[in-house]
Amino acid sequence: MARYTGPKHKLARREGINILDKQSASLQKRLTVKPGVHGAKRARKLSEFGQQLREKQKAKNVYGMLEKQFANLVHDVQKAKGDTSEQIIARLERRLDNIVYRLGFTKSRFMARQFVGHGHVLVNGKKVTIPSYTVSEGDVVELSEKIQKNPDVVKLMAEAFVTVPYLERTGHVGKLARNPKREDVEVPFNVQQIIEWYSR
Q1: The whole model's pTM is what?
Q2: Model confidence over 94-133: pLDDT tens digits?
Q3: In 120-190, where does DSSP find H-type helix?
Q4: 96/118 Cα distance (integer angstroms)
Q5: Under 8 Å CB-to-CB from 23, ≥6 apart: which residues?
């Protein structure tokens, strides 16, 4: 299945959450109305199957993942020992594109994927061009000298930065100080329902 490339507002309204990583007053007012000519009509109550499907779709769209990528991640975690819910969040948060976004280097995960894909991100001093690359504890993530001069990056670097507990940042250099925990981040989807979806 190809990655969705249509209007981001339409995707956000379908899921009923802001997946754009930025505030939008116009979108916020429309999140409760589904896209399409019948969007304003009262929505039907979802079945258990439908609820699980929607939660899965939300998670995929928030992190910008394809179905096969997301399914493989969940299945890998289900085979491992430990709390499955905790590990799913940890794996999602350790994606390189997400780390770049969480470090405040970009204003959205979409922008972070572009930076990584275009070779503007280094991990431990080496260029990595795979957005889904899993960052390990202790890894150092930094922006290339070229992209540091990008106007959007310069503006972001001048703004106040609030990081998540598992990351450290100094200028254009960040580090995964420890593995992410479930309580470190707020996610707009129900992880347990996602686990149940893939356990059917």
Answers
A1: 0.80
A2: 999 999 999 999 999 999 999 999 999 999 999 999 999 9
A3: 145-148, 151-158
A4: 13
A5: none
Domains of the chain listed by start with CATH number: 8-88+188-198 (1.10.1050.10), 95-178 (3.10.290.10)
**DSSP codes of every residue in 17-35:** S--SSS--HHHHHHTTS-S
Rounded Cα distance, 132 and 3, in Å: 14
Among 56, 58, 44, 52, which Cα is nearest to 11's? 58
Ramachandran sector of residue 171 (left: φ over 0; alpha: ψ -120 to 50; beta: rest): left
Q: How far apart are the first and last CA of the chain?
A: 21
Confidence grade of residue 18 (pLDDT, cut at 50, 70, 90): low
